[in-house]
């Protein structure tokens, strides 16, 4: 599975001509569909590069890259049934990658000077890696989930109060036991919180799901330091004793799904309520000025346009920048160019499914013109 670090590595790749092939291919669940898939991949590769603005034609996908994709598909197609696979290929640069993605995406073939990353970002945002913490007064278990893989980060277990008769004791003795249990419990939440804090410190922030009994979810949530708490995505109730790693993923998956779904409209609302550019022209102007704090782009569709080879300006026409089109280079997708530029400028990017715009941006400062 692919990570944010992989995206950064891909983003550093640059070919002088429009020679990097990016091919997103959903592989059917039924092995019988594999034969048709090779033909579909062939069509997408033949179509890649034909979508440039101004009818600018490129040399197309090289035979070597095309064969490498088809050979790999023939050899590994069966390993990818039911997944979307992305290929990045450029023989000139010695680049060839084929990776299954954590969620299903539509097919797309693009030939450009660098890897087309917008669908990749969409996949990482829609099916993010996440952590799950499960705690009660005697156990704590922290897991990390990436795609279909579940890994235990830490697991602790203390002995609980000795039954029988715990509930039936009275007086001072019972009070002491209660106290001990409560202290132990608090201590455990703190331990779990500390593990989560270390995990957050060590890597990028990922959403956090908490599972367990009602009161232990509340207890752990309360013990979380603010830096961890802000990543809290939601919870599920379950008896920790009955949970397996696979069951944890089954229960946490829908929590993450609804967290992702909730964030899209929230983000759109946030954009509209703040200093923002909405729509292609305003957003491109903002990108060109380096004014974008957070770019929000639609997942679907591509918008062909131009990049000025001199000042780097993105535009829908080849004559829109100060250089009067002398150095304009056609690009297949301005949205991907805007994404790349925003990331280069340390801005944030979110790809959303149901956007009321193709592109919009939260701004660092007002843009004139
Ligand atoms: Zn220019």
Tell me what the structure shows.
There is one protein chain. This protein has 369 residues and is α+β, with helices and mostly antiparallel strands. It has helices at residues 4-11, 34-47, 63-76, 118-126, 171-202, 214-223, 226-229, 245-273, 280-288, 334-344; strands at 20-26, 84-90, 95-100, 108-112, 130-135, 139-146, 149-157, 208-212, 232-237, 276-278, 292-298, 305-308, 314-315, 328-331, 348-352, 359-363. A 5-stranded mixed sheet has the order 7-6-5-8-9, sandwiched between helices. It has a 4-stranded antiparallel sheet with strand order 3-2-1-4, with helices on one face. Helix 2 (34-47) packs antiparallel against helix 3 and helix 5 (171-202) crosses helix 6. The radius of gyration is 25 Å and the shape is globular. The protein starts with a helix and ends in a 6-residue tail after the last strand. The relative contact order is 0.12. Bound molecules: zinc ion. Zinc ion binds at residues 308, 310-311, 313, 321-323.
